[in-house]
């Protein structure tokens, strides 16, 4: 095996991973890369690895930012990266039930290309969309940017097929069931620790004929979150509903030509906007009439909160550039910037307290830093917060610099919100899992792992 092939599948895309790839520290590399071509071959690989005590790290798009695909071997004699990219087929489409079965190695863009030939789409568009895979979406309980309209990935899953060291495991036979706990949700989010997902049956939707994205500005964070809460609780959310705080809004709008004009600044001040928070909303539907109706529902709710429309140009600019973050991060790192993200979620009553606590923890640890935050997903009961952090890189200990900051932020999150809303547990969040699900919850997961993976070969060191 060419060393570069093993190195390419040794880690994900977190800031720490990228630092190590730039020579700031070492990281484990798998002893081999195995590329099965179908679910039966995946099953055979696991049975062989179980007999020889070899660890198995499932690898799809490699976009984990929490150490979920790091080539840890734990107490195993060796570890392989199980690359699933050859599992790239659309297995079936049921246009009546609107269910499609996709293999685990299909990427987001390829899934939409395959489904479009049948008139369907997933509508699942996280920032990792360009590289991440169907199996990865399921294994991490991914949330797409349009999940207010299409649902989180777990909401789309109607069935799942897994390979385990104990044999193949298939789940999901009907749209709903009372046959005990829904074990699909034990497989979804299991991060490769309870089995290797090989196929996923998914609810699909017709390809939208119309897409409309707009930008609004509301005055202040508290007012903005109140507006988004009202949208969620009155079932008037757009498919994409994204609210940036003042700090993030200043950066986002400064990069847009229209914000540079004094006329727009004067206009916002005249409309009573002193602390601008950018709100991106986007609707997708089968017709102009449907989108117009839904847009009217949204704007009617926004009106009492003083939302000022600043046009489709900004909304479309965000839609076109929403996958550019990773490339921007590389450029910032080239110039000595520590740039990383973290995310969480809480009920509405605690949301601002959570934002303040995380900001305070990061500031206390990093000192001078730009800390930006936005509501990335909204629900009737609460919302997720997504933080982006930029500060001067500590050249003496860059990995330790972010490790300390992330630990402080995680401690601030614990007891207020979830340790992860959509990035999963991996290695980074594992120390905080018991604090969220309790020791009994951890024991339940350990028992499930022992049932399907008695030798403990699946993704060592992750989740548990």
UniProtKB/TrEMBL annotation:
Feature type site, description Important for enzyme activity: 242
Pfam families the record matches: FAD-oxidase_C, FAD_binding_4
Entry-linked Gene3D superfamilies: 3.30.300.330, 3.30.465.10, 3.30.70.3450, Uridine Diphospho-n-acetylenolpyruvylglucosamine Reductase, domain 2, Vanillyl-alcohol Oxidase, Chain A, domain 4
Positions with a binding annotation for FAD: 58-64, 191-197
Keywords, sorted A to Z: FAD, Flavoprotein, Oxidoreductase
Domain of life, per lineage: Bacteria
GO molecular function, one term: FAD binding
Cofactor(s) essential for the protein: FAD
Active-site feature positions: 386 (proton donor/acceptor)
GO biological processes: lipid biosynthetic process
KW Transport (keyword) present: no
FAD-binding PCMH-type domain location: 26-207
Family annotation (PANTHER family): ALKYLDIHYDROXYACETONEPHOSPHATE SYNTHASE, PEROXISOMAL
Protein's name according to its UniProt entry: FAD-binding oxidoreductase
Species annotation: Amycolatopsis coloradensis
Classification of source organism: Bacteria, Bacillati, Actinomycetota, Actinomycetes, Pseudonocardiales
């Amino acid at each position: 095996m060419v060393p570069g092939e093993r190195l390419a599948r040794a880690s994900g895309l977190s800031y720490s991973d990228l630092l190590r790839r730039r020579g700031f520290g070492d990281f484990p590399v798998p002893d081999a890369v195995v590329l099965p071509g179908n679910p039966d071959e995946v099953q055979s690989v696991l049975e062989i690895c179980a007999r020889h005590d070899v660890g198995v790290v499932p690898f799809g798009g490699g976009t984990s930012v929490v150490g979920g695909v790091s080539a840890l071997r734990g107490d195993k004699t060796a570890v392989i990266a199980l690359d699933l990219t050859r599992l790239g087929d659309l297995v079936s489409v049921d246009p009546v039930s609107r269910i499609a079965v996709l293999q685990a190695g299909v990427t987001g863009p390829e899934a939409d290309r395959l489904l479009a030939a049948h008139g369907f789409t997933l509508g699942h568009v996280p920032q990792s969309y360009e590289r991440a895979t169907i199996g990865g979406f399921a294994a991490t309980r991914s949330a797409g940017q349009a999940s207010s309209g299409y649902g989180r990935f777990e909401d789309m899953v109607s069935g799942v097929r897994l390979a385990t060291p104990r044999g193949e495991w298939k789940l999901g036979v009907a749209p709903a069931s009372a046959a005990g706990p829904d074990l699909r949700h034990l497989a979804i989010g299991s991060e490769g620790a309870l089995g290797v997902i090989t196929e996923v049956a998914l609810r699909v939707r017709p390809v939208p004929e119309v897409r409309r994205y707009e930008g609004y500005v509301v005055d202040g964070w508290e007012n903005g979150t109140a507006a988004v809460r009202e949208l969620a609780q009155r079932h008037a959310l757009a498919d994409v509903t994204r609210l940036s705080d003042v700090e993030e809004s200043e950066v986002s709008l400064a990069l847009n030509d229209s914000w540079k004009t004094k006329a727009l600044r004067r206009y916002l001040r005249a409309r009573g906007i002193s602390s601008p928070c950018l709100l991106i909303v986007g609707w997708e539907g089968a017709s102009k009439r449907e989108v117009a109706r839904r847009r009217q529902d949204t704007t009617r709710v926004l009106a009492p909160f003083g939302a000022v429309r600043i046009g489709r140009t900004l909304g479309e600019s965000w839609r076109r550039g929403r996958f550019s973050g990773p490339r921007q991060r590389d450029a910032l790192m080239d110039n000595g910037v520590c740039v990383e993200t973290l995310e969480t979620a809480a009920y509405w009553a605690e949301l601002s307290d959570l934002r303040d606590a995380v900001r305070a923890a990061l500031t206390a640890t990093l000192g001078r830093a730009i800390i930006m935050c936005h509501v990335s997903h909204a629900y009737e009961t609460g919302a997720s917060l997504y933080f982006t952090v930029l500060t001067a890189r500590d050249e003496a200990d860059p990995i330790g610099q972010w490790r300390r900051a992330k630990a402080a932020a995680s401690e601030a999150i614990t007891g207020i919100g979830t340790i992860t809303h959509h990035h999963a547990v991996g290695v980074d969040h594992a120390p905080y899992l018991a604090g969220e699900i309790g020791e009994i919850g951890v024991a339940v997961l350990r028992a499930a792992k022992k049932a399907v993976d008695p030798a403990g070969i699946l993704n060592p060191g992750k989740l548990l």
